[in-house]
Amino acid sequence: MNAPLPMSVARDAAGAYDRVAFATNEVAGRLAQHLATQTQGEVLFSPADRGRYATDASIYQEMPVGVFVPRRAEDVQLAIDICRDLGVPVVSRGGGTSQCGQTVGAGLVIDNTKHVRNVLELDVAGRTAVVEPGIVLDHLNAQLKKHGLWYPVDVSTSAQATLGGMAGNNSCGSRSIAWGNMVHNVRGIDAWTADGQLHRFGRFDDSTGWVRAMGEQVRAMAAELAPEIDARWPKVLRRVAGYNLDVFRNQNPRPYTADGSVNLAHLLVGSEGTLAVTRSLTLQLSELPKAKVLGVVNFPTFYKAMDTAQHIVKLGGGTLTAVELVDRTMIELSLQNPAFAPVVRSAVIGQPDAVLLVEFSGADKASLVRHLDDLVALMGDLGLPGSVVRLEDDTAQKNLWEVRKAGLNIMMSLKGDGKPVSFIEDCAVPLEHLAEYTDALTQVFRRHGSRGTWYAHASVGTLHVRPILDMRRDGAPKMREIAEEAAALVRQYRGAYSGEHGDGLCRGEWIQWQFGPRITEAFGRIKQLFDPQQLLCPRRMVDPPRMDDTRLMRFPPSYKVIPLQPALDWKPWDVQNDPATEKTTAPGTGGDPAQGYAKAVEMCNNNGHCRKFDAGTMCPSYRVTRDEQHLTRGRANTLRLALSGQLGPDGIASQAVRDALDLCVSCKGCKRDCPTGVDMAKMKVEFLHHWHRRHGRSLKDRLIAALPDYARTAARLAPLLNLRNRSPLLARLGEKVLGFSARRSLPEWKSRHFFNTPHGTASAAETLAAAKPVVLFVDTFNGYFESDNAEAALRVLQAAGYTVHVASKARPDGGHLCCGRTHLASGQVEEARAKAREVAQALGPFAERGIAIVGLEPSCLLTLRDEHLSLGLGEVSRQIASQALLLEEFLARELSAGRLDVLKEKLRPVQQRILVHGHCHQKAFDAVSPVLRLLQLIPGAQPELVESSCCGMAGAFGYEASHHEVSMQMAELSLLPAVRNAPDAIVVADGTSCRHQIHDGAGREAIHAAVLLARQL
Ligand SMILES: Cc1cc2nc3c(=O)[nH]c(=O)nc-3n(C[C@H](O)[C@H](O)[C@H](O)COP(=O)(O)OP(=O)(O)OC[C@H]3O[C@@H](n4cnc5c(N)ncnc54)[C@H](O)[C@@H]3O)c2cc1C
Ligand code: SF4
Ligand code: SF4
To answer: Does the reported pTM lie above 0.90?
Structure first.
């Protein structure tokens, strides 16, 4: 029973990955074949699929043999059996948001997130739920909300972290001071051990059979090691390293169970997939707090903030739920963001060095307010009177929490090869030492020429900090040096080295450091009990590799990028940075062989934030398919692998990249929502340029791209061309020959359109001389297909007293201006550049004079603000971009300046409900709220914003036969149901494709906001 760790364990563990790494194609082939024939799951073994699962939110990368996406729980069991027979390790995976490389491994990665994600049982009265491992925390909590319940381990990654992964890592939320960690909130786990047996892990007292026997052995180990455990085990809430041997000898300040009993499921919590594969979890639910108040304490020094946390946590009489830190760097970053600045200003007093957000939660606000009074009094006693800002209003609190999140995101978006690296990010120390510890660690960073921004959970002594390191150069040795010095501090202050994010590849070797050889050996024996064959995530927890083994890293010193001549200007990403000041070098000096494109791609740090389904746009294709391949992260990884030659010699123009980008609708959701600003829409333009250069263009692509060029001629043939919409035969022919879906109507050509109708607008000269001038940029779609919109916009602007000039080419015969979007959409960058030049020539003089250039179609007008800046046309593009506004943005600006009174007075009331759907590009540029603001000018109007992602049409995407189904699925996610649920509402949608999708999917006619405004005149 208490035998020393058999030598064969360490040897087997060490050998397991080597065996797999060198696994012959034959083994991989057999594995794939057995999975495909014996299970119902998806079998993903292509180099790109494996590459997409070779990383997580850590700095590591290791190619798995293959990936398996089970359709049912039974498939997981079959996969374990197949792997065991072939000797291939099993790596369980949830959202892959681990920061230490837990899900990186050379076996078969099993991704539970797509299908194995159901709530199996819910006992509201007993407050328990049984769930499958792939369910995401936010999705579970959304189901619990109506019952007044929640699962309270509120990790920051709640929108993507799965319960299986959270249990694997023993995750901890911001409010762990009140509710504890995963281990405190799991009541039972059903899991397969490596021999394929399904076991129920729960109360030790109730256990029988193998589970009982295993429990007895672990109990004996704990008894034998009692003095060792008492001496070496960190006595902090946040300790997640190693196995929870202390279930039999509790060392955690918070007992693992309410009644002091031993629960064997807690041995699996934090075991990072190395002991068993979870089939289901029984969770202890909590009552949702009914009320919350927040006190923001402003500190003159960071040290004082850290020193005060230990006093604050004594407040609240059990209602204190969070004490979170925001440091000066983050405050300053948030103040630079116009959207967040007012929120931050309302919470800070003067220029604090740090603030602590102190939250009390409970049944009623009145009693909580008294705790805020106590906080104010405490701060007075501690010599900081008047340092607390009280936020009792729920919206104000929510806004501030969002700022904290966003501040972190801005920090993560540092350009250049130096990146904030997570490896000592979650050391936990007792609160009385927090100030000295953070101070000493700051000195460590300084000695190594770096610095860290501090944030997170002051309440439990876990502060997040990431020094900036360049892993391609001297990052690995520096990381070890800093880790060693940080570890010495953790030991000095009797803390836990791994306090939140687990062990994985990064901290496995520190388990022995933390617990000593005897406890580490006991961990080896536990592993041997569960998994004698070393099948489950071998070489993690037991016999782990060195944290700085560069062979396991995503950016090892040998990392090379294939030289590439990009079509767009990516120089702003081609920079290096100074880790101490975070200042970046001049654009174009970063030494990227792909001239900035590769570095833009590498901005993705795999944090997985794009795996979200909440408000926001990112990422519509993933929302539909739930495939890693169709996720912004999956796309960025595919591009990174391709650009660095890891997918073969074709580089960027490889089929794998095409497959990954095929369903990207270029919505720019990621440009806005991704914390590091990964702009996949722009990356896709670059890809398409190279792809089409190598593989040529289809007739359909050419027809779409050249639409603005032949629109004038085509309009003359309107009756003929529109026959396609009347004749199913022609529609089918169109699908066969061109690839346009026969199930779609195409936009109707009009013989009479905006561009061949006189409007009596001002000339360029008149406009330049006018008192209230504006240039109306009428795009191809609103000009030729939906002239009513352009005419409505003209009426509204003229009614508001503006002198309107309709933009046209700067040549004697005029001709309508085009932004070049259709060319960009098929990667024809040169043609788009030619269009942008025409725009620059025609509109430059207006922009130079500060005259607004106002457009109607978000995807066209905003091209002037976005892609035109990457076409290398210089200052004139920047000037135009600064004046380019959507109609509502312009009018909202004029409203703020008090120049819209004339229009306001003319607007007649509206009685109907108004639903507003924002175009993705409007959302990406924060241009939706002006629409609401402007519509509110109409008396009686109460516009409601539809919480929708992309409509799914996305330019030509939804018209293509190959994309029709996905396009409709995207629309059905939220937009179409919302429209159907409001049968009498006026539906406002500024995007031409959005209106088309609403027409096709809900049979309703949505209108541009300009039309509604004009109607009310
Ligand atoms: C920006 C950012 C913020 C974060 N904030 C927090 C935070 O506030 N608190 C916190 O605790 N963590 C945090 N993390 C870390 C991480 O998000 C959490 O640990 C999260 O719970 C992991 O969930 P996941 O679904 O991504 O799991 P994964 O990373 O996929 O897996 C985690 C572990 O669980 C194992 N596992 C998964 N499924 C199973 C299964 N079915 N059976 C057995 N083992 C399984 C895996 O093998 C792995 O060892 C953060 C990470 C990032 C990138
Ligand atoms: S694309 Fe952005 S959000 Fe998605 S994983 Fe990469 S960095 Fe995170
Ligand atoms: S542009 Fe849209 S569809 Fe494409 S990756 Fe970004 S969020 Fe996803």
So the answer is: yes
